[in-house]
Amino acid sequence: MSTYGDLDKLNTPGLPVPTITDLSRPHWEGCQRDELLVQRCQDCGHYVFIPELACTNCLSQQLDWVASSGTGVLYSFTVIYRPQRPEFDAPYIGAIIELEEGWHMLSNLIECEPEAACIGMPVEVCFVPRGDNLKLPMFRPLVAG
Ligand SMILES: [Zn+2]
């Protein structure tokens, strides 16, 4: 039996790719370098994700791109058994991750059987190739040691 979320099933032909905009480009370029970049407000320190033109806390437009540690915990998740597109290898886990810095992102939990997923479990980012020249940030269980 294969482990759920095998990397070789996460880049099969036909899977959708994100639309990269001028606003989100730094995030995707960071992923290419295996860096998880997030916007941070210079004025109030709030982390902003998804990318925005202004801080979602104080409306300042002084946003920097900073590197996240890429570690956090599983904040919430759902197991998808009937994918919206046939290209997806189901079941898979849609997850909200709470990063160490306190911000959240929607992603996937991989290399984890659905029955093993639990709220609060430590996770780490990994960068999964998608298409010809993209990497997507996904998360896997963080093994201590
Ligand atoms: Zn702010």
From TrEMBL:
SUPFAM superfamilies: Nucleic acid-binding proteins. InterPro entries: ChsH2_C, ChsH2_Znr, NA-bd_OB-fold, Thioester_dehydratase-like. Pfam families: OB_ChsH2_C, zf-ChsH2. Residues 28-64 form the ChsH2 rubredoxin-like zinc ribbon domain. Residues 65-128 form the ChsH2 C-terminal OB-fold domain. This is Zn-ribbon domain-containing OB-fold protein.
